[in-house]
Specification:
By secondary structure, the chain is an alpha/beta fold. The chain has five helices and five strands. Strand 3, helix 3 and strand 4 form a beta-alpha-beta unit.
């Protein structure tokens, strides 16, 4: 089984990759690597280069935790581009060349619960969640899971949470 994971350079993505790489073929998509998710032109190349892909784990994400009036327009664009638009394009391109079995989105409780200094991040994660719900309606044969984590726990315990979480998901 071949698993593509975005955002593997640190944190959750790095922990997911570490946990899965002994039993699965891992294709990684990270900023400091050949394929940078924030560069739209790399998305099609990634999908074609690694096809076929069985499981897509959408983990890449960024945020700047400021009040909406403190964010620059460039920061807003970066958050929405990384957390939503690039993921939409990646799913689109991978579906064009692969018969995916699973899509797992590492989301946030911010997608379903409002927090101060989190407006754009929350909107991007909620958008990704809704996008995947629509994909599920269009492609019912694909198992899709939105995994909502709590940010405060992730900061301190990311590797342990994902070892537990992935053993429960049973890819």
């Amino acid at each position: 089984m071949k698993i593509a994971i975005t955002g593997t350079s640190q944190g959750l993505g790095k922990a997911i990759k570490k946990e899965l790489q002994t039993n699965y073929t891992i294709c990684e998509f990270r900023r400091s690597f050949k394929y940078d998710l924030t560069k739209i032109e790399n998305i099609k190349l990634f999908a074609k280069s690694y096809a076929p892909i069985d499981v897509l784990i959408l983990n890449a994400g960024i945020s700047y935790f400021y009040k909406i009036n403190e964010l620059t327009q460039l920061e807003i664009i970066n958050i929405i581009n990384t957390n939503l638009i690039c993921n939409v394009f990646l799913v689109q391109e991978i579906l064009a060349v692969c018969n995916l079995k699973h899509i797992i989105a590492i989301s946030s409780n911010s997608a379903i619960e409002a927090f101060p200094t989190n407006s754009v991040y929350a909107a991007s994660k909620a958008g990704l969640s809704q996008f995947l719900k629509c994909v599920k309606k269009e492609k019912p044969e694909i198992k899709i899971c939105n995994f909502y984590h709590f940010q405060s726990l992730i900061c301190f315990f990311s590797e342990h949470i994902f070892i537990i979480s992935f053993s429960l998901l049973k890819i």
